[in-house]
Write a structure and sequence with these properties.
Number of helices of chain B: 13
Radius of gyration of chain B: 19 Å
Structural class of chain B: mainly alpha
Number of domains of chain A: 2
Shape of chain A: globular
Strand order of the largest sheet of chain A: 5-6-7-3-8-9
Distance between the termini of chain B: 24 Å
Helix content of chain B: over 70%
Structural class of chain A: alpha/beta
CATH topology of the largest domain in chain A: Rossmann fold
Strand content of chain B: under 5%
Shape of chain B: globular
Strand content of chain A: 25-35%
Distance between the termini of chain A: 71 Å
Number of domains of chain B: 1
Number of strands of chain B: 0
Helix content of chain A: 10-25%
Largest interface: A-B, 30 and 28 residues
Number of helices of chain A: 8
CATH superfamily of the largest domain in chain A: P-loop containing nucleotide triphosphate hydrolases
Oligomer: heterodimer
Largest sheet of chain A: 6 strands, mixed
Chain lengths: 406, 261
């Protein structure tokens, strides 16, 4: 028994933009090359690009391993390589043990077949034998809560029912390596909770989990170690909180100054000063510093900060004007620094900061810097929901008899 | 080849459910139900009878029940061959979402397509047994050759199904090409006629690897005569060669399926 069920070593993956082949004249030599020669060369031709470059990591038995990164960083590509759907252009991937992927859990469904029939169909597609499905059938049905619709063709299911049935089948494969990609966005809140519980249960059974998600909080909660991908390269592998910090602070490095803009927000940083913390507790104070420079004189300005949640909903905003500062002015070459302090009366979650330079009166922005910084509020069991409304219990007692008819 | 057989054995349940899915879907919400299994052979037999009546009118030789039996015995395996290939050619593109989203040994798709037609073949064969009994075609020891011919036919069909499904994934017009060839292939294959009608040109027609199979099946089932072993061997070699080549090509191209579909 080895301790690394998954080893990815020096993997490159090349894709081609546009149509694969223009004509038969392109294709026949290309196919011949693929069939009879070794791996494709490591150079890029005109319309090719690297989706992954020199990606190496290994995952230990029994651990939950996270993969994070922005859209287009190569997360899905690496999963397709691990599951064997695609093969790397160069490098090797070694998988030991039965693998199951919670990606596209309903891909195996056929709309004309009933729920019952689809459980067998999808189950074997996801790697179970019919005997295993028969044995776990009741558990799958109970998990999906679709007992009443088992003999209905799944084309009549709602999309939520469809996804629930898919997840229920996939969750009962009992793999040694489980790959999860953003599936938790299916179903209602209660079903999502159930899925998380099931994943924890699978982990308790000595399985290895590879978890790919944009939901950093879920990654932090589930994974001990994580990998940060950026434009197909590995930026960091290590303990999840450090990887997440690297991911978030990467966005805080400031952005390149666009030379043609006359006035510009150069930096948005989180304080207290000289700290690189990104995780805060509910009720803690957070300092947000916005710096801006101008190349030509500007006046009548205010600085606006906005805290938004993961779905870009405005949680809170404030500005220098509302906090009592008058119109701000900047001469050519000057730098404006404004520091705000807020108390984080927020529930657990991921929050982003947008910063704006507004005209004092008209609200038309000179410049804006969206998602300039990101921070987490760590969970406290007593604060649930969205905001911390500082509750207190004023009255609580039991009375006998009053108001109850005899 | 060895590896792929081992993989298929390991995935036999998958093969089973996929085959069962094809059959189930075909018979769900359909007017004809199981009659579908005998529709195509029945149509081929009718066409064959018309052609045979034409032959007998030209030659002045009366139509015999043996001719009818011969056409029926050829029509059933031919229907299996044609519909397997037609169905399997589009099996990978029809399952594109599975090819690009879930890892499976992809041979299961063309093979399941072939197997579902094999079930129809079995149903049609049962009906054929009834027809042959009515025509007073008896039983003979030569019938022991029949399983060998069926096996060669299945191997040959599987090979073509595998390679054509992969080709059709890269080029969508392969499907139409196959369609055209299958429509006219019946004229190049001894289904309506028998190769001996062509005299010393008969061996040319026998080069088509399906021809010795249909001739051999007619020999052992209708004429109760021993089959031509050299031609049977030729077909078997072709079938084995096509299957081996098909599996090699399929595996060579498989890494590019998900990117090319």
């Amino acid at each position: 028994m080895t301790d690394t069920p998954l080893r990815v070593d020096g993997v490159f993956k090349k894709f081609r933009k546009g149509e694969l082949y223009d004509s038969l004249r392109d294709l026949v030599p290309a196919l011949g090359k693929r069939l009879f020669r070794g791996p494709a060369p490591s150079t890029l031709s005109a319309r090719e690009f690297w989706a992954l470059q020199d990606v190496s990591f290994d995952v230990r038995r029994g651990e939950a391993f996270g993969i994070i990164g922005s859209n287009g960083a190569g997360k899905s590509t690496i999963l397709k390589l691990i599951t064997g759907i695609m093969r790397p252009t160069r490098g090797t991937i070694q998988v030991r043990g039965r693998m199951s992927a919670l990606i596209e859990v309903s891909a195996g469904f056929h709309p004309d077949l009933t729920g019952r029939e689809n459980i067998y169909l999808n189950g074997t597609i996801l790697g179970m034998t019919r005997a295993e499905i028969r044995q776990r059938f009741d558990a799958i049905v109970a998990f999906s809560e679709l007992e009443a619709f088992l003999d209905t063709p799944v084309k009549r299911y709602s999309s939520g029912m469809f996804a629930r049935l898919g997840f229920s089948v996939a969750a009962h494969v009992e793999p040694e390596i489980l790959i999860v990609d953003e599936v938790l966005s299916v179903g209602d809140y209660l079903f999502q909770q159930k899925c998380l519980e099931r994943m924890n249960q699978i982990m308790a059974g000595d399985s290895t989990i590879i978890f790919v998600s944009h939901n950093l909080r879920a990654v932090a909660a589930l994974c001990q170690r994580s990998l940060l991908l950026d434009h197909g390269r590995v930026l960091q592998v290590g303990p999840t909180n450090e990887t997440i910090k690297a991911y978030l602070t990467r966005g805080n490095q400031g952005r390149a100054v666009t030379p043609d803009s006359d006035i510009h927000i150069t930096k948005v940083s989180l304080g207290p000063r000289n700290s690189s913390r990104v995780t805060f507790e509910t009720d803690e104070f957070l300092e947000i510093t916005v710096e801006a420079t101008a190349r030509t004189p500007h006046e009548d300005m205010s600085v606006v900060i906005q805290i938004v949640d993961d779905n870009q909903y405005n949680v809170f905003d404030t500005c220098t004007q509302r906090l009592g500062a008058g119109p701000l002015a900047l001469d050519a070459g000057e730098t404006l620094t404004s520091t705000f302090r807020v108390q984080l009366r927020l529930a657990e979650g991921t929050y982003h900061i947008n910063a704006f330079l507004h005209r004092y009166v008209t609200n038309r922005p000179f410049d804006r810097y969206l998602s300039a910084a990101t921070f987490f509020v760590a969970g406290t069991p007593t604060v649930r929901g969205v905001a911390h409304l500082v509750p207190a219990l004023i009255h609580c007692e039991t009375t006998i008899g009053a108001g109850v008819p005899a | 080849m060895h590896r792929s057989v081992a993989q298929l054995v390991a995935k036999r349940d998958l093969l089973y459910t996929l085959t069962w899915r094809e059959i189930r879907i075909k018979y769900k919400q359909s007017v004809m139900g199981m009659l579908w299994a005998i529709l195509m052979p029945a149509v081929i037999v009718s066409a064959g009878v018309v052609v045979r009546i034409g032959f007998s009118m030209l030659s002045g030789r009366p139509l015999e029940t043996g001719d009818l039996a011969s056409v029926s015995v050829r029509a059933v395996p031919w229907a299996f061959f044609v519909s397997s290939i037609r169905f399997a050619t589009s099996s990978l593109t029809a399952n594109a979402s599975l090819v690009t989203k879930i890892y499976l040994p992809r041979e299961v798709f063309p093979i399941a397509a072939m197997l579902s037609q094999l079930v129809d073949f079995a149903v049609a064969s049962l009906v054929l047994v009834v027809v042959l009994t009515v025509l007073h075609v008896g039983v003979d020891v030569q019938l022991l050759w029949l399983p060998v011919f069926v096996l060669i036919l299945v191997v040959l069909t599987t090979g073509l199904c595998i390679v054509l499904s992969a080709a059709s994934l890269f080029f969508r017009d392969v499907k139409y090409l196959v369609e055209v060839i299958l429509t006219f292939a019946i004229f190049f294959t001894p289904v309506f006629y028998e190769v001996r009608m062509f005299g010393h040109w008969a061996p040319v027609l026998m080069l088509n690897p399906v021809a010795p199979l249909l001739e051999g099946i007619t020999d052992v089932v209708v004429r109760h005569a021993p089959p031509s072993l050299p031609w049977m061997g030729y077909s078997a070699l072709c079938a084995a060669g096509i299957l081996a080549g098909a599996v090699a090509i399929f595996h060579g191209l498989e890494p590019y399926f998900a990117e090319s579909v």
